[in-house]
Every structure is written in structure tokens, then in C-alpha cells.
């Protein structure tokens, strides 16, 4: 499942297939993002860009991201308080959107708005999802759909990993165990709400 310190973000695949490289490069992303930062030093302190998952640090927390192979465009590492972007997985021109998703929402939206305003905003989004109309309803439904798709991928990966481990041990997992794994891999309400807001902001 998702580690405590590192949470996967920006899942872009709908099946377990590897994505083709986007054609984007570390250099192009850094150049484009530095145009929107007042201070390149500040940007470097909160954002790291790598070409592929293989260039991420060799830590246990990064193993799940590395194994996604094209499925993660970026993520926020709570331990280092840094956003990581993976150039191969980000279509050209979408780097700012990925950065805003990671830094703007996962890193600081709650702190920026304050606990009460954050709660009011997320409650408004939930209300639009339940009974909204027009553009707001359309955008929040799209955001919720993306959260559900990301959750399904996370659950599928957890099940696949457990089945592979069981097979290696010469054991077949009963359906009941697979369902328990799927339930355990479900996003918490807090994470699902945070993701919904992140996708809506995009």
C-alpha cells in the first residue's frame, strides 16, 4: 500500500501498462518552472525533478513510486517536505499543473487557508458534487472520477503484489483475503478529500 511518508500522486494510467515517455526533460521543466518562482533557490528547496523513476533516491519509501513505471507524474514526500516531479511522465506544457497539484495542495493548501477555511472549501466541493449544477458540478465530478480511478489503481497494485507474494510462497490467496486487501488499500477520507481538492484546483 501507500507508505506513510510518501503518497503517490498524479496517477495517469488506467491499466497496468507502462506509459510511453512524454518527451519532456528535466532541463525544460526546471526552466519553465523557474519562470513562475520568484526565487530559483526557493524552488530548488521545495521541488526536485528527475527524468525517470530510476533516478529517485534509493529508500524504501520510494520503492512503490519506482515500481509504478510511468504511472506517477509527481508526489509529495512528507519526510523531506519536497515535491518530486518525473519528467518522462509529464506531457510537455503540463509541468505547472503538476507542480500546483503537489506544492499548492498537498504541501500547503491546508496551511495557506487555515483549518476552518479548508474545511469550508472541501465541504462546498462535496455539496457541489451532491447537488451542484453547471460548470462547478462538471469540474467536481471530473475530480471525483480521477480520485476513484487513482484509488482503483492503488487497490489493484496492492492485490497484485499480495497475489505475487503468495504465489512465490506457494500459497493461493482466497477471494476473502483479496477483498480484505482491496478494502485496506482504499484511500482514507482525508486523503480522498485532499485529492479531490487537488484535482479540482487543476
Characterization of the model:
By secondary structure, the protein is α+β, with helices and mostly antiparallel strands. It is built from nine helices and four strands, in the order βααβαββαααααα. It has a four-stranded mixed sheet with strand order 1-3-4-2. α4 runs antiparallel to α9, α6 crosses α7 (134-168) and α7 (134-168) packs across α8 (175-184). The chain is globular. The model is unreliable at 1-17 (pLDDT under 50).
What attributes characterize this protein structure?
202 residues; alpha+beta; four-stranded mixed sheet; disordered N terminus
**Low-pLDDT segments, ≥5 res:** 1-17
Radius of gyration, Cα only, in angstroms?
18 Å
Figure out the total of helices.
9
> Main sheet: which strands, in order across?
1-3-4-2
Beta-strand content estimate? 5-15%
Number of strands: 4
Largest sheet: 4 strands, mixed
The succession of helices and strands, N to C, reads EHHEHEEHHHHHH
Mean pLDDT across every amino acid position: 79
SSE diagram, text form:
Blueprint: E1 6-11, H1 26-34, H2 40-46, E2 47-50, H3 63-67, E3 72-77, E4 82-86, H4 95-107, H5 109-113, H6 115-131, H7 134-168, H8 175-184, H9 189-201
Helix pairs in contact: 4-9, 6-7, 7-8, 7-9
Amino acid at each position: 500500500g501507500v507508505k506513510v511518508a510518501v503518497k503517490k500522486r498524479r496517477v495517469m494510467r488506467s491499466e497496468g501498462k507502462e506509459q510511453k515517455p512524454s518527451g519532456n526533460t528535466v532541463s525544460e521543466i526546471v526552466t519553465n518552472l523557474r519562470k513562475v518562482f520568484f526565487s530559483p533557490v526557493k524552488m530548488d528547496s521545495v521541488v526536485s525533478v528527475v527524468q525517470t523513476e530510476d533516478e529517485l533516491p534509493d529508500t524504501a519509501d520510494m520503492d512503490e513510486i519506482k515500481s509504478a513505471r510511468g504511472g506517477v507524474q509527481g508526489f509529495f514526500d512528507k519526510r523531506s517536505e519536497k515535491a518530486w516531479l518525473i519528467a518522462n511522465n509529464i506531457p510537455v506544457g503540463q509541468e505547472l499543473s503538476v507542480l500546483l497539484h503537489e506544492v499548492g495542495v498537498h504541501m500547503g493548501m491546508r496551511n495557506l487557508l487555515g483549518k476552518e477555511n479548508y474545511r469550508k472549501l472541501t465541504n462546498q466541493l462535496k455539496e457541489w458534487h451532491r447537488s451542484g449544477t453547471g460548470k462547478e458540478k462538471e469540474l467536481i465530478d471530473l475530480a471525483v472520477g480521477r480520485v476513484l480511478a487513482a484509488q482503483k489503481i492503488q487497490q489493484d497494485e496492492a492485490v497484485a503484489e499480495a497475489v505475487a507474494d503468495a504465489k512465490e510462497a506457494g500459497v493461493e490467496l482466497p477471494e476473502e483475503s483479496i477483498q480484505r486487501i482491496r478494502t485496506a488499500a482504499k484511500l482514507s477520507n482525508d486523503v480522498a478529500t485532499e485529492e479531490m481538492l487537488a484535482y479540482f484546483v487543476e
